[in-house]
Structure formats: structure tokens, C-alpha cells
Design brief:
mainly beta; 16-stranded antiparallel sheet; 4-stranded mixed sheet
């Protein structure tokens, strides 16, 4: 809370004249004695006397006042020695140090700011005449927040070389509590109903730790406005708060508040009209504003109508529009006619847009996100959109703007954008650890703002148990000035699925890809992509779910050989984003819909559809509390035939579930299991040596066993998340750390899985099997997550508890990842 108004200072200027005599004289010489810190030249600037001037008492008095006004001196005397004028001065001591002790409600920063408003700061001379006023002002401040026992003691300690230490010692004491709020004159609404509208609470029980009945003057004033609004919003146009009295108990620990009010009677709106200039948009404004004839008068509706008109006109450059509602009261019929007086004023233009705070990012990278242009009219809508679009950049932590009038011009302004950058990638070479991938080695660069150009560049070599990957990618988000983006990628990957709790197969793939993105408008975008890749699939064991794929591509002459596929994959996607930030958003939404598939003529012909959405709703005005919902769906399948078999979604393209999508479960643990079919043991005739051979039975229906997880061709997940302030964290770090409580739900299933194929199994064998085509087998978990944009990269730690699981699911209560992706 700013407290400058409580620190007003006054001073009395005195002067003494010695040995000047009663007659004027002509100055032949001028001296200033007693100077230490103040330079002679600086002192002479406040002495309007020159050698040769004829002096009198008035001139001397005026000169002494001027010297006092400089703020450098505590005492000044003037002497005459013959025809020489001598000023003997005593300089004010210099403040060497300012110390605060015992202050809790007023922070050191606020105190320093307030003292500087009185020119009291380290290194400046101390005017002791303002000390008493500062003490009184601070005590008045404490009284305004209910601390009537507070005391403030300001001491001045002399130091060598005419320096002083200034110490402000506070004894704030306990805040007085509101013992009673007494409303007088309310007949239409009870005390209880009106007091439910206010923030101040009275006479709380000792056990009510969550409530607060502390008296604060500003809170009471705000509460009275809430009561006023309560009446005005219900038609009581002439409601008035006649007086307010605040009484303090003798021990200064309790406060009694009495409010006298006049309710008046209900009024209806008989009609409304406009005067002034609405720029030819009267019909549109009339149809949009919520005012309606025949309804009860509502103060909030009137205010919102005024604000809408001002905001609407500000879109077209009329930034200083004035809208005033003039009521015409009909006492007899209890009606009021409202006239909205509109004065748009001059259209305001933007002379210059300044950008500051961008130490790494080029100006043009920030400016290309702006919809507000230099030379164009000032638009509040364009300014807010510019702010949001800049803030969506992954390398921007925060963005603010300020509109400053151009001196001497009433129709021009300058706009100052201030940005705060944050790391959007890292140069890395070393080790990382994840609870899923284990120990990883990585080397490379990942940067969303490469050399300040706004381009995204990534080169990475990552190795972990069961996976090696090399990739190089580059994306220019402004390949054309219109915002068409171009991205290119080259990659190589070697993957052993068995190392990740999946079925046994190995995949080696490499290829190149490119995509183009086209903006539809500020929030919608479409993307087109193409990828040419070569893939070798080997050591694919025979499972029920891979049977068709093996039969389609199996070489009868070499059944152990792998499969080689060449694929040309096309994709088209739509995205819509209204998020307020690129990282850790708190408001808005993001939705993506992607369709990709291989072209006819590829060795594998399939398609996949993915939809993903996140919605953020801020709960508090400062966005420290926010609510997020998310949902994602995916489906894929094959099309066409190969070697007489219908194509299916290849096993390596099956959907998976990551640990960030379903916390509380091991990665992939909720996927369908692979089914292995085999013959039941069938014993033959014993041999002469007593051994009994197994000649086997029918391999089609006799017995099954369950192998590793394999995934499916359909996926669904949902989540609810409450984002809360991170405890023990100052405001400067809230944009890089996020704490939330969540509920996750997810399932992956296989629509091609035919459980009826196993109907001939014995009951014992059939009991081993679940219906992996069932979309209702959701798992659910709840817990808490902390995310941090650390110097090493994004870091996530989650604590989760499964609410709904199945018998063979692997769960975990804690997951931890460094260099993960949010």
C-alpha cells in the first residue's frame, strides 16, 4: 500500500542578521564560510548578489531564504566586515544509512519509496524538520489499518564527517478487531443479508482460524460501496449512506462501526437515449448494451453499459472517450429515464512503439507479433491482442505495456512495451534422469529463440536403455511476412520396445519431413506436412494382435527375416489457441486436430486422427488460482489390402500413454496385453526308457498366455487440474514454478480385438483374458504436481494415488523427470 500521503513535511525558515548595520552598503567582496560537502559554486547559485550591488535588509532576507530553500543548510547567518558580505552556514548532515526495525505491515520497499517522496534517501542531506511529520503520518497509517496501539520512533545517530544514521523503530502492536457493525435505517433487507455482501467480519469465534475480523479503514470503505451497489442493483436509485461513525474501545483493541443509511424506493427504467457522437454506430450500441426499458434500475448494468461504449470507441482510436449517464427521475411514477452522453473526443494516433527488456530477442521478432501499428490509431483491442501474442512466445515470461501522451499533442501517444525474457531451450551436454527412461545421455541444442531470431532450432543426440535417437530440426515461424511457417526435420531412431514394458520387437527408422503452417486469423491456424521415411521392423514375435500383420508381410522362405517399409506420410492439422502465455498459461484454451496417413503405394497404408484440448479458467483476478480441464482422443486403422489381407494399424503405430498424461501409473501399464496362443500339452506313449513326449494339441484354441503390453488403435484421456499459488515462493518466481492438484483418467483399447475368437477356450484359460476392445476400462488417479523451468531444463515431480486400477497395473506414487516436455 502506498503511504506517501502520510509523510507530508513542513519546515519553518528563520534567519539571523549580525553586524550588518541599519544602512545599505555596496558589496566589494562576497564570502561563504562553513562549506564542507556543498561546493562553493553550488552555494553561489542560491545567492542572487554580485560584487558592486547595493544591499539592503530585504535583499539579505531574500538571499537567506533562497539558501534555506536549497535544502543543504540547517543554519545560516549573514555578517558584514567592512564592505565584505559573509554568509556563515552550517550544512545539514548527510544520511549515511537508513534502518528499519519491527515493521511488518509496511515493507522496507514501501518505506523507502515513501521517504524518497520527502527527499529522504541515503546520500542526501537530512531535513530534521520533517521528522515529526513523518512519525505522525506513519501513526495515522497504522490507525487506518486498525493498529491503534502502534508507535513509531525515529532516531538520528550522529556519525563522523557530518553524517547521520536514520533509524525507524516500529512497535505495531495487535490490530483492533471489528466487534460490531451496526446498520441503521435498513428496513427492506436484514442486517444479516447486507453483511453477507461485505468483506469485513465481526466478533469472530476464537476457533475460526480461517476468518479475519481485523479492522481496516479501506476495507470498510469498500464494504460500504458493496452495500450501495447491492441497493442500486435492485432498483433503489436514491439509496444513500448518510453517515459513518467509527468508535474505538478504551483499550484500543475493539472497533464499533455504525452506518446510517436511507433506502429510498424502487425505480424502473422508462427508457434510455443517447446524446453526443456515437460515430454512426448508435443502432449497434443500442442492441448490444444490456440496458432495457421496463426493467428495474440496475447500477451495475448502467456502469457496464458506460464501460462497453468507452471500450468499443477505444477500438477505433477514441481512447479518451467520455460517457456519462444522466438520470431524469419521475418521482410520481417511480421511473427514471436514462440519457447516455457520449463524447468520443479526438481520435488518438500512435506516434512511436518502444520495446524494452529484450536483451536476447531482436526487436523485429517482437514487433511482428503486434497488431497495433505505428502511425495507426490507438486501439485497446489491438494493444491487448499484441500483448497476448507476444506473451504466447515460449521465450517470453511476461509482457506489459504503457501508453504515454506525447508532450504538446492531445491526439498522439507513444506505446512502451516492456518484456521479460525467459529461457526457451538449452545448450546441453550431459546426463539426465527420468523415472521411465532411466539414465540418459544427451548432447545438443534445443532453442525456441535461436540467436534472438524467433526461429526454433534443435539438434539432439539422445541415448537411453532401449532407445537411441538423432534429430535435426528447424522451424521459421515467419517464413513469409504474413506468418506462414516452414519447418524441416531429419531423424534417425533405433528402438527396442521390450525395454519399455512392451512386446518384443525392434524398430530402426530414418527419414526427412517438412511442414507448412498458414494462419487463418489471430487464433486459428492450419498445417500441412509430408514425411518420407524408411523403417525396418525386426524380431517381431507372434502375438494374436500381430498375427494379421505377420501374415501380410511374412516371407515364407525366410520367416525369421524382418520387415522393411517405405512410407510417404501426409498430414493436415488445425489448431486454435487463445492462451494468455506460452508456458504456464492461466487463461484461454488450446485445441488441435490432426489427421495423418500414408499415401496409397506406401508399404503400409493407414491413418491416425488425434484431437487434443486444454481449457484454462482463472478463479482469482490475479490468476494465481486457475482451473484447467483437458481431453484428448485418438483413433487409427489401416485401409486397403496387401497380399490379400486387410491392412491394420501397424503395431509400432499403436497409441501409448505417457506418464504426464496419466500420473500415478507406470508408463504403458494400462495398455492392452499381447496374447500368445499355443497348444495344450498332449502326452504321447512312454518310450522304453520311461520318458513321455509332448505331441501337442490344437494350437488354435487350446491355451493362451499373456505377454507384454502392446497398445491399441484407440485412445481417450481426460483431466481436471486446480492450479494454486506455490507456497513459500515470492512473486518474482511464480512464472517459472507451478503447483497443481489433479485428477487424471485414461484408457487405450483395440477396436480390432475380437474376444469371441477365444470363446472355445476352457473357462480357466478364458479367465486369463480381458476384453481389450472395451473402451470403458478407464484408470483414474489423483495427486499433486510441481513443475519448474530450471536452468537444466523443465523439471516435473508428481505425487499421485490411483483411484481406479486393475489387478495387473503397475502403479507409482512419485515420478520425477528432468528435461521433460510440458
Amino acid at each position: 500500500m502506498a503511504i506517501k500521503k502520510y509523510l507530508a513535511a513542513t519546515s519553518l525558515i528563520g534567519a539571523s542578521f549580525a553586524s550588518l548595520g541599519q544602512t545599505a552598503f555596496i558589496v566589494e567582496d562576497l564570502k561563504v564560510e562553513g562549506l564542507q560537502r556543498v561546493a562553493l559554486g553550488a552555494a553561489l547559485t542560491h545567492i542572487p548578489i554580485n560584487v558592486g550591488d547595493n544591499l539592503d535588509d530585504y535583499t539579505i532576507s531574500k538571499t537567506i531564504k533562497s539558501l534555506y530553500g536549497s535544502g543543504h543548510f540547517d543554519n545560516i547567518k549573514a555578517y558584514r566586515d567592512g564592505q565584505t558580505l559573509i554568509f556563515k552556514v552550517k550544512e545539514r548532515p548527510t544520511i549515511s544509512f537508513i534502518e528499519f526495525d519491527g515493521n511488518k505491515d509496511i515493507k522496507d520497499e514501501q518505506l523507502n519509496e515513501s521517504l524518497e517522496g520527502q527527499d529522504i534517501r541515503q546520500g542526501e542531506p537530512l531535513d530534521k524538520t520533517v521528522i515529526d511529520n513523518i512519525e505522525k503520518g506513519l501513526v495515522e497509517f497504522f490507525h487506518s489499518i486498525g493498529k491503534y496501539n502502534a508507535t513509531v520512533d525515529i532516531s538520528v545517530t550522529n556519525l563522523p564527517r557530518n553524517r547521520v544514521k536514520l533509524k525507524l523503530k516500529f512497535d505495531e502492536g495487535d490490530a483492533a478487531s471489528v466487534r460490531q457493525i451496526n446498520l441503521v435505517g435498513n428496513n427492506l433487507f436484514s442486517d444479516e443479508e447486507l453483511l453477507q455482501q461485505v468483506e469485513s467480519q465481526q466478533d469472530l469465534s476464537w476457533w475460526d482460524f480461517m476468518g479475519s475480523d481485523r479492522y481496516q479503514k479501506q476495507t470498510i470503505q469498500g464494504d460500504l460501496e458493496k452495500v450501495r451497489s447491492y441497493y442500486l442493483d435492485r432498483g433503489y436509485l436514491q439509496f444513500n449512506i448518510d453517515s459513518t461513525q467509527v468508535s474505538v474501545s478504551p483499550d484500543k483493541e475493539s472497533v464499533y462501526v455504525s452506518v446510517n443509511l436511507t433506502e429510498g424506493e424502487k425505480f424502473k427504467v422508462s427508457g434510455f437515449d443517447f446524446i453526443g457522437d456515437l460515430l454512426g454506430r448508435e443502432e449497434l450500441i443500442r442492441s448490444v448494451i444490456p440496458l432495457k426499458a421496463g426493467e428495474l434500475y440496475n447500477g451495475s448494468v448502467v456502469t457496464s453499459s458506460e464501460e462497453f461504449i468507452k471500450s468499443y470507441l477505444a477500438r477505433f482510436g477514441y481512447a479518451n472517450a467520455e460517457v456519462r449517464t444522466i438520470p431524469e427521475v419521475d418521482e410520481e411514477n417511480k421511473e427514471v429515464k436514462l440519457t447516455l452522453s457520449v463524447n468520443p473526443g479526438k481520435r488518438v494516433y500512435v506516434r512511436r512503439i518502444n520495446v524494452s527488456g529484450n536483451a536476447n530477442t531482436a526487436d523485429q521478432v517482437i514487433r511482428r507479433e503486434m497488431t497495433q501499428l505505428e502511425g495507426g490509431w490507438l486501439s485497446n483491442q489491438s494493444l491487448e491482442r499484441s500483448k497476448i501474442q507476444i506473451q504466447r512466445l515460449m521465450y517470453m515470461e511476461s509482457v506489459e505495456f504503457d501508453v504515454a501522451p506525447v508532450p504538446g499533442k492531445d491526439d498522439q501517444v507513444d506505446v512502451d512495451f516492456s518484456v521479460k525474457e525467459q529461457s526457451a531451450g538449452s545448450f546441453n551436454a550431459g546426463l539426465a534422469y527420468g523415472s521411465y527412461y532411466g539414465l540418459q545421455f544427451n548432447i545438443g541444442i534445443s532453442e525456441s529463440n535461436f540467436l534472438g531470431s524467433g526461429n526454433q532450432v534443435a539438434f539432439n543426440i539422445n541415448t537411453s536403455t532401449g532407445s537411441e535417437a538423432v534429430s535435426l530440426s528447424h522451424t521459421d515461424p515467419y517464413f513469409t511476412p504474413d506468418g506462414v511457417s516452414l519447418g524441416n526435420r531429419i531423424f534417425y531412431r533405433n528402438y527396442d520396445a521390450s525395454k519399455f514394458s512392451l512386446v518384443e520387437y525392434k524398430s530402426t527408422s530414418y527419414g526427412v519431413g517438412s511442414n507448412l503452417g498458414f494462419p487463418i486469423n489471430a487464433i486459428n491456424r492450419i498445417n500441412f506436412g509430408v514425411t518420407l521415411s524408411k523403417e525396418e521392423l525386426s524380431q517381431l514375435s507372434e502375438y494374436e494382435q500381430t498375427r494379421i500383420m505377420r501374415e501380410t508381410f511374412l516371407d515364407p522362405e525366410d520367416p525369421d527375416a524382418g520387415f522393411d517399409f517405405t512410407k510417404l506420410e501426409l498430414s493436415v492439422g488445425w489448431s486454435r489457441m487463445t492462451l494468455n502465455r506460452g508456458l504456464f498459461p492461466t487463461a484461454g484454451s488450446k485445441q488441435t486436430l490432426t489427421l495423418k496417413g500414408t499415401t496409397p503405394g506406401s508399404d503400409l497404408t493407414y491413418f491416425k486422427v488425434n484431437y487434443d484440448s486444454k481449457f484454462y479458467w482463472p478463479i482469482s483476478n490475479d490468476h494465481k488460482w486457475s482451473f484447467m480441464t483437458r481431453a484428448a482422443f485418438g483413433y487409427g486403422n489401416g485401409y486397403g489390402t496387401t497380399n490379400g489381407y486387410d491392412q491394420i494399424l501397424p503395431v509400432q503405430e499403436f497409441f501409448r500413454i505417457t506418464e504426464s498424461e496419466l500420473r500415478g501409473f507406470d508408463r504403458n501399464t494400462i495398455l492392452p496385453r499381447a496374447v500368445v496362443r499355443g497348444p495344450s500339452p498332449l502326452l504321447g506313449t512312454p518310450s522304453p526308457d520311461g520318458n513321455v513326449s509332448n505331441i501337442g494339441g490344437d494350437p488354435e484354441f487350446d491355451q493362451i498366455s499373456m505377454a507384454g503390453r502392446i497398445g491399441g488403435n484407440a485412445k481417450a484421456l481426460a483431466g481436471l487440474e486446480l492450479i494454486v499459488p506455490t507456497p513459500f515462493l515470492d512473486d518474482d518466481n511464480t512464472s517459472s514454478v507451478r503447483t497443481s492438484f489433479f485428477v487424471d483418467a485414461a484408457n487405450v483399447w483395440d477396436t480390432e480385438f475380437d474376444v469371441d475368437r477365444f470363446s472355445n477356450l476352457s473357462p480357466d484359460e478364458r479367465a486369463k483374458l480381458d476384453d481389450y476392445s472395451d473402451p470403458s476400462r478407464f484408470r483414474v488417479a489423483t495427486g499433486m504436481s510441481v513443475q519448474w523451468i530450471s536452468p537444466m531444463g523443465p523439471m516435473v515431480i508428481s505425487f499421485a494415488y490411483p483411484l481406479k486400477k486393475e489387478e495387473d497395473d503397475d502403479t507409482k506414487s512419485i515420478s520425477f523427470n528432468i528435461s521433460n516436455t510440458f
